[in-house]
Automatic annotation (TrEMBL):
The keyword Phosphoprotein does not apply. This is Flavinylation-associated cytochrome domain-containing protein. It comes from Syntrophotalea acetylenivorans. Residues 1-66 form the Flavinylation-associated cytochrome domain. The chain crosses the membrane at residues 6-26, 47-65, 85-104. The keyword Ubl conjugation does not apply. Pfam families: DUF4405. It comes from the Bacteria.
Amino acid sequence: MVDIHLFITLFAMFLSGLLLHFVIPVGRVSSGDKYFLGLHRHSWIDMHLFLALIFMTLVIIHVGINSKLVVQLTKQHFHKAGIRMFGAIAISVLLLMLGCWLVVAP
């Protein structure tokens, strides 16, 4: 059930991202041009952000539900030292993504 919600949320984020990038204009234009389906560009941005937060929450739930499988597959592919290395790499990637998110302005 979580997988279906993940797909729906990802698809909705994809569509709202396309709308924000290609359909709804950015910058100084007449205020009527910044509306699509009755919603202003800022409302679409808020919706896109809300969908992203829902998606991240669902990913955490999905990984939590499947944590035994993740641990089992990791143990099959890596030895104990490899598991530590895998964890270090995973944490490094997450910290890098968080750092980029905090530093790079949209």
